[in-house]
Amino acid sequence: MSATQFLPDTTTLTGRSLRHIARSPDTIITTVLTPIAMMLLFVFVFGGAIDTGQDTGSYVNYLLPGILLMTIASGIAYTAYRLFTDLQSGIFERFQSMPIARSSVLWAHVLTSLVANLVSLVVVIAVAFVIGFRTSANVLDWLAVFGILALFTLALTWLAVIPGLTAKTIDGASGFSYPLIFLPFISSAFVPTDSMPAPVQWFAENQPVTPIVNSIRALFAEQPVGNDLWVALAWCVGILVVAYVLAMAAYRRKIASA
Q1: pLDDT at 175 > cutoff 80
Q2: Whose CB has fewer CB within 10 Å in the chain, the N or C terminal residue?
Q3: Dist CA 91 CA 98 (whole Å)
């Protein structure tokens, strides 16, 4: 199919997926509940006992970037879930019999995930402001933050497509996200990495969450981002490219065997 066919097909299918979410707002509510609960727990229960060693003001200022990544990790589980249910319901076979661009089916799910996760992020940020989050970030800083979060969402969403296409059960399709949700705990999201034992510190400083969290935190505080931004972008782009290639290969195998 040509690009001119791909765009309207993707737009139409994305609209279909978004309508499903609009009719079931509990999807977004469920997505934000865990991150908001974690934020409230750490700010009001543990926050007073945690010394970040940084001049970030209230602990919620230090904590929020990691909570935002947890929100995305929680949200992309629904991409795998929706893909799995579409496969089980036979909707994919129905789409294959129609004159539409085949890749538009996957892109519709990916773009739906992007929109839904951005809505969830806005809700979490709003709650953070209510409980004391403050930032000196300007418009460009905010655009940079949302750009990083959008890229991270795309990377994890394409990662979610793989179990959505290959899982044998619905639990297998959505369960893969649990390690991603808890990955921020072994990073600079909650405490500085230099407070950790050496082996844990090495892992924390060499996994994708830490540079992403550090970059967002610096942007919120209008501080220099340094090399963290480039490392964060490299991780996001690397995960996105690898996940996209593997997801498309899984999709081709799936439709070939249908």
Answers
A1: no
A2: C
A3: 11
First and final C-alpha spacing in the chain: 20
Task: Give the model's pLDDT for residue 234.
Answer: 96
Give the model's confidence band at 244: pLDDT under 50 very low, under 70 low, under 90 confident, else very high.
very high
- Cβ neighbours for 237, distance < 8 A, ≥ 6 positions apart: 151, 155
All structural domains of the chain with their residue ranges? 3-257
Share above pLDDT 70 across residues of the chain, in percent, rounded to a whole number? 85
Residue position matching structure tokens 């490392």:
231
CA 204 to each of CA 74, 174, 177, 192, 250: distance values in angstroms, whole numbers, following the listed order? 20, 25, 19, 10, 31
Q: CA 254 to CA 258: how far, in whole Å?
A: 6
For residue 50, the tally of other CB atoms under 10 A from its CB is: 16
pLDDT of residue 201: 93
- SS percent in the chain: helix, strand, coil, step 5: 80, 0, 20
- Residue-level length of the chain: 258
The Cα 57–Cα 190 span in angstroms is: 14
On the question of pLDDT at 3 being above 70, the answer is: no
